[in-house]
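quick one: zinc ion bound model?
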Amino acid sequence: MVKDPVCGMNVDEKTANFKSEYMGKAYYFCNQSCKAVFEKNPKRFTDEHSEHEGHGCCCC
Ligand SMILES: [Zn+2]
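yep, here:
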């Protein structure tokens, strides 16, 4: 089982119908909308230091 990076749900990579590849890594999703959200902004879900993303007020 792997985790759907968007909603955090467990997804079985053997049966998952929704898969995306980003930076050479495969990601699996529970449904099409999670996949769409991921593909819109994969960085948001793959960059562990993205906590600050969005506030845009400084360089940190
Ligand atoms: Zn999901």
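The chain has one domain: 2-45.
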